[in-house]
């Protein structure tokens, strides 16, 4: 069974930080790819970052140097550390898992319910 439950979203001011967590079922965590995508109201979804079982990381240009994706294998948890947040990062952030291709993340077969991130200027 695939279960992905996000947490850690919230409201922060520009320049602030948040860490998103995604608690995954054993089956979901065993998939080849896990990642994050986001979607703001009225926009298309955007891939944020993903990581495969070998630890290879794929990320969008807009997050490089600011966001870090990581896996906590002891807790079956996917993390997204977000620093230097900007108002344009405001969106619903979704955790997702996929067996085949690691990009784009918004096309993954399995996803959670999302956690809202709001960045004010």
Report what the structure shows.
There is one protein chain. 3% of the residues lie in helices and 50% in strands. The protein has 121 residues and is mainly β. The model has no long low-confidence stretch (mean pLDDT 97).
Mass-distribution shape:
globular
Distance between the termini: 40 Å
Number of helices: 1
Main beta sheet, described?
Answer: 7 strands, mixed
Q: SSE string, helix = H, strand = E?
A: EEEHEEEEEEEE
Residue share in helices?
under 10%
Proportion of strand residues: over 45%
Count the E strands. 11
Q: Round the Cα radius of gyration to an integer and report it.
A: 13 Å
Unreliable stretches (pLDDT < 50, length at least 5) are none
Structural class: mainly beta
Estimate the mean pLDDT confidence: 97
Summarize the structure.
This protein is mainly β.
Produce the secondary structure layout.
Layout: E1 4-7, E2 10-13, E3 18-24, H1 26-29, E4 33-39, E5 46-52, E6 57-59, E7 67-72, E8 77-82, E9 91-98, E10 110-111, E11 115-120
Parallel strand pairs: 2-11
Antiparallel strand pairs: 1-3, 3-8, 4-5, 4-9, 5-6, 7-8, 9-10, 9-11
Entry keywords:
4-stranded antiparallel β-sheet, mainly beta, 1 helix
